[in-house]
Amino acid sequence: MSGKTNVTIDVRIRTRAEMNTGTPRMGNWTYHHVQPVRIYYLAASTILRLITDVDCFAETRVLGTNALCKMCNNVHNQTAVRTFVDQNVDSVTTDDQRAVIAKLLASPPFGGFAGMNPTQRSDDPHDAPEGLRPDSASAGWWEGLNQIGGEILAAFGLHLMPAPNTNLSATKQAHEWNTIVLSLVGNIELASLSGAHAFERKDWKLTNGDNWTIPAAGDRGQFPARPAGGAVFPTMALRPRAEQYSYLDPSVVPVRSLVNRGTTPLQIRAGGSDYIDYV
Question: Which residues contact 75 (CB under 8 A, 6 or more apart)?
Fold first, then answer.
């Protein structure tokens, strides 16, 4: 084993469907990835490539394996990770070999936050990173996830998100890859301490106009009606800290009280849905 040996890591960025076996649910809410699937997949495949290489430091192999297990959504996937490492130790694994495991880790349990259905979000980034931290979420958690994205892109000399069906390759000395992987491990550990951020109604705001929600003078007792011909449900977005709440949950504050204070009452759709509806 030599820290000065050149190690080449090749990873093919596949389609999202090929890189992700399933996104976890957070109760009735949708799990929104802070970093795109391809970032978690790329980080996992890179770590797998190094920790099975003969020039991986012993400490990196142990810590890297443990970090990958924290990216798993169930104990069966953890077993698959450990079995893969044990069976391929001191070898040069191929991208196709690693893909079988890396796709199990592309939606880590700590890698996102709970929110409404993506079709209700006006700010859903789709396959890009989330741009705004949920206000009530841990800053350390957010920083850890963003560091994972920045570090893995930099390792392959990238400044932009790689497109699907793109082949990535980077050659560095073994000690450099060990340093990169240990940094990724540290940020995985940091983010996993908090876990995925649970749904918090105050993290969200209305984005499809609220003029219909403000009761007219002298008519403070009337509940706001669903806009005629409007959307079936209100569109929502993450709320910057500087903006006031535009709605509260009527299960906590009475609807009439909400109306009287000029705040939009919304309710969680019945039946275990991940939508928020007008009252």
Answer: none
